[in-house]
């Protein structure tokens, strides 16, 4: 039995409608993409969906009370709740700069995106 | 005397300032917040800069890229502009307060990049108790992502535009329950990549629905929702209540143009921003506008692009004692065009046209009637701005106007 997953590509604002046909857990066919990035994304979205995750971390002695952070690369969707709990336990001291790595979660670096 | 005073230190203002400096102009940048970057600093999600920096950045990262290029520019933060005085075409004054007191500076041109404001609960007809727990999406975002304060636990969001959807994700990630997103129109308002968020967090989206009433004692307790028909009229008997402690309003942005209207700048009612020519000059000579103060953009990349364009306009204005053009060709809204800018084209330079459709349509042709230009597109949506380049050569074929329309492909 094959199943067709249909979604709007979110790689860029073109918003292509991509269809991924899956049979017995294997990708059979991909339609509707206009670039290789879109094709790759659609396959991953079916087999192992991932997201960049962002949050803010309290900062002591900073100009603003928080710094914003993001994961350096997308993390598996089902890991996100755990990641958020991990982030909720972190605090940093000023100064921190854009690009600083303040922690690591299962091999994924947590990067600062705002100065404080 | 300055060559340019830039009002607003968000992405449009910073890009305008940087470009003006590169062009050798003497610039002053004013911002009323105590930090530069505008709303970008609280937009901690990725998705910025794909066109402008050819790289995907978060809002603050985009802002810092620009801030780092501001070296050597005179910048004043916590500086709120009180008044613009248009003394003559070639001399203007800007009056502002700052921690140093009230000051008045003179300048040849002004680039106005004060962004937009959010529509609030009263503007969209919500009645009921005036309780704690009602925020605009931007306020909620400032609380969470600048100050680290959760605005509530059980949240209803009004409006499925990008800001509302992005806040739905932030609330969900931080452990709040988003009980519903309520959208007045029969289609979602945001970019496709943001609609995805609803699926990620199993958030119900009610299309053709409206929040009409808030009840609570001290704090929001319940929110009344009603279905609307195709004319957006409430259908009686369809009312239901959602229990929640917080209502977040994300019902669209309106260009912030008060200082401009006070000096007689002509506003286009469909964009809410000024009527401009292809140098983004308003109807008052030497006053340029860019970013969300011009029209509501969906990508910061376009905002920065407009900032640069306005700076180039200011340079041309200063060199020629005005923007020289033999004639102005009007760009006119045709079928299924809700808004567009710029409104007047010289035909002497290539120009980016920014436009939005009134309703979604598939398999269409965007047509510039009088010059015979046609562009085929698979789909157009009100949420996604059309950005189309017209070449000087194409524009100059027109006599006095060019009509832009979106029609079904035949």
TrEMBL record, chain A:
Gene3D superfamilies: CPE0013-like
Xref: PANTHER family: DUF1667 DOMAIN-CONTAINING PROTEIN, MOLYBDOPTERIN OXIDOREDUCTASE, 4FE-4S CLUSTER-BINDING SUBUNIT
The organism of origin for this protein: Thermococcus chitonophagus
This protein's name: Molybdopterin oxidoreductase
Any single Pfam family the record assigns to this protein: DUF1667
InterPro entries named among the record's database cross-references: CPE0013-like_sf, DUF1667
From TrEMBL, chain B:
Residue ranges occupied by any FAD/NAD(P)-binding domain in the UniProt entry: 2-294
InterPro entries according to UniProt: FAD/NAD-bd_sf, FAD/NAD-binding_dom, Metab_Enz_Cyan_OpOx_G3PDH
Keywords recorded for this protein, A-Z: Oxidoreductase
This protein's record includes keyword Oxidoreductase: yes
Gene3D superfamilies hit by this protein: FAD/NAD(P)-binding domain
GO molecular function, one term: sarcosine oxidase activity
Native species: Thermococcus chitonophagus
Domain of life: Archaea
Lineage per the UniProt record: Archaea, Methanobacteriati, Methanobacteriota, Thermococci, Thermococcales
Protein's name according to its UniProt entry: Sarcosine oxidase alpha subunit
EC number: 1.5.3.1
